[in-house]
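Sample A.
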Amino acid sequence: MDQQFPSRSSFASAYKCASVSKYDHLNLKDRKQSGFQRTAKICLRQIRKAVLHHDWQTAAELMTNYFQILEDTSPRNQRSACKAIWRMGTTILQHHPNSSMDNIESFTRKMKIIGVKFYLKACLEHAIHLLCNGKMDEAYRELSVAETWRYGEKSANQQEVLKLIQGYRALLDYYTWAKKNRVVHDMANDAVDSSTAQEMHKYFRQASIGLRDVVQSPGVWDPFILGYVNLLDFYDGFEEALKVLNDYAYDSRFPLNPNAHVYLYEFLKRHDSSPKKLMKVLRVLYHLTPSHELMLEFNSLLLKSRKSCHHKEALGVLFCLLDFPTWKEDCNTWKCLLKQVKKAVAQGYSDWIKEQWEPRQDWWPAFHFSKYRAHKDFEENNTNAYRKAQIAGILMGKGCKYFITIYQLGRKVQKAKLKKMRQYVKDHSLLQLSGC
């Protein structure tokens, strides 16, 4: 895309593949458009089609021609064209196999010249691209230049972009501070001179001011929040950091975000908060994302409580985890479930198990306890297959397919163990306890 623009005639000739029949279905508004505008619309459609099919070479060639749409004298058409060129052009350059950083630099410069309203966005996205390619110093310079850019009054949209630019620049200040802090941490106390301490404090101030301004606005600010909280926490700002995390997790101005509760939990855990506080945070996360990996920690915390209602809740947490395919083959979860199911039976709380099983009895047999699944589980991990068979037997009785299959596969090598398991299932299955 970094070449001289072809003439209008070459622009039109690039679309010989677009037959005249394309115009047959144009509406009245389209018919009033000039031939140049109609050809530009067809060109854009062809670019989108090429991008959709990952045909980056064709997309690049068409985009070179589409640049001529900027000759359109209509401000409205120019604005929409600028947006299309920026979005599609960036995508093409990021995926084209022969694209280089020089191509992207050249394209970004053109976009900055095309229209002042796209200047800040072009700077921001170019900086992010540089970050993705490990060029932190270049990205910092790009953001710093954009932050000081002035051209008339800024629209509300430009103000939002400027806030993001300031936030990313502050985030890079935080990364610089963190890097220097690791170096200082490895040094002896008497080896840290005053100039090093002053430099670190400078980065701390720059980063904390910029990050604070960003995280006060409604939005999802995960990396910014983490950086800001780490800065506050390092300089003994526990209460302020806790308030930031609480606001991010619970303030209705911010959208629901499971990560906000993860960050709050990890912060409280790092500061040895009480199990009650930790459970409170994880309970909210459980309702938002019941398949989260922290649910095993939530289960463990609930079991440490002396309250039977917490033990009942812990059982439900495990059942919910196993509702999701990502946990389907997790041996530790099945191990925990069997242990807690047996404990519930021993303490006379079989109704807890029944309560969890009833909404799942129509689909868990096919999901977890099919004959095919039994063969696969036994082949991959027979120990876990025995656990699952025992759970299946407790839930559905010794006549269920999974239990029978595992029993038949394992009785030759684990005869005593399987016999004991069968007797336990016979005595404690939900069918037996309900009198069926």
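Sample B, a different protein:
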Amino acid sequence: MTWIYSLFSGPSGFSANSRAEDVTNGIDGSGLTAIVTGANSGIGLETASVLALRGVHVIIAVRNLQVGQKVKAGVIAKIPNAKIDVMELDLSSQASVRRFATDYISKDLPLNVLILNAGIMSPPFTLSQDGIELQFATNHIGHFLLTNLLLDTMKKTSDKCQKEGRIVIVSSELHKMSYPEGIRFDKINDEKSYSPFYAYSQSKLANALHAKELARRLQVVRANVTVNSLHPGVIKTNLLRNQGTVASFFSRLAFSFLKNIPQGAATSCYVALHPQVKGVSGEYFADCNISKAGKFVDDSEMAKKLWNFSLELTRSE
């Protein structure tokens, strides 16, 4: 797996060095409406901010409404004309996902772009409110359910405005480092064999498989909605600050190749808005270019099995 990013531009004209504002420069997003999950901080906040900068009406979906309102105020302070709304969404709770979708549909809002960005990484073994391992529940199942509940709205919006709808799923290069069998359908909740790292990677593999299978299904019904997954990059943090002299030297060397937040949000914004991505569906992007996904992502049987497995886990009693 490559952690040192190429600074040279790919076929799109962009590279790992490109920022979200760079890849959307000159794009007019006015008239579009987007939902961004996990937009309270990090690349989710940057994605929402840049979309708003380009004229998109952005709904930030966050667990804490108070935090969300502060985020909204911060964006408007920088972008006075920004159209931002805040709605409550806890992806680890299917009841919360259903409430969000019901509330959104009741507002009779259009939906052109759905960016599934929120996620958690490597917690101790925990079950969600619905009895599903927390990373799988939050990173995949919550987003799977949300997408299914809002898909008709996206189809209607694309038909009405004659503009392609886009679903953007933030995966990770770590999807290539899931458990040996890929998705452990019979051991999702197995605490004894649980690995925080592998379980995270499994959830990211599920994101990429979700994009692949949903893209296939939408193409069958000829819906004007595309679905792609992506790797945002490894984002700079201060987690490596407390190290010895030698380790610190190599950490700083590697650190210089990692992405900052504007760079980390670039691929999400590129796939969401750029005209180069028109008609492209079922692909995996990195550094604002189509990239090669892991071997399991091309396993159509695994993708279909995950779809049916996810439907069963989200089935309303």
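Observation for Sample B: The longest helix spans residues 134-161.
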